[in-house]
Amino acid sequence: MTLILVDRDSHEDVIAGLLPSLGIPTVRADLPLDYVFTGLGEGGAQVSVGVERKKCQDLVNSLRNGRLVAQFRRALGEGINELCFLFEDEVRVSNGGT
Hints:
It is a single chain. The chain is α/β, with parallel strands linked by helices. The chain has one domain: 3-Layer(aba) Sandwich (Rossmann fold). The chain is about 25% helix and about 30% strand. The chain contains three helices and five strands. It has helices at about 15-20, 55-65, 65-75; strands spanning about 5, 25-30, 35-40, 45-55, 80-85. Strand 3 (about 35-40) and strand 4 (about 45-55) form a beta hairpin. It starts with a strand and ends in an 11-residue tail after the last strand.
């Protein structure tokens, strides 16, 4: 059975609210990322995958202030093997590039 850990600080999380209705149990925990789940990698080895949700402006800010690198280092230090992003936002590009 798949179990997805959801960061305790993720408020109003549509995804975390949807998962149980799809039969995927979730547990709230103190995590360095938004979600963590475990699966099987090459050769059947257990792999822990961390997922971080970011809106565009939050991504830019966390890259500028170093928060994203610190967050990923903490995740790797806590035994998360793989890291991935889930980008969500509306992006508008004008003819002038602004």
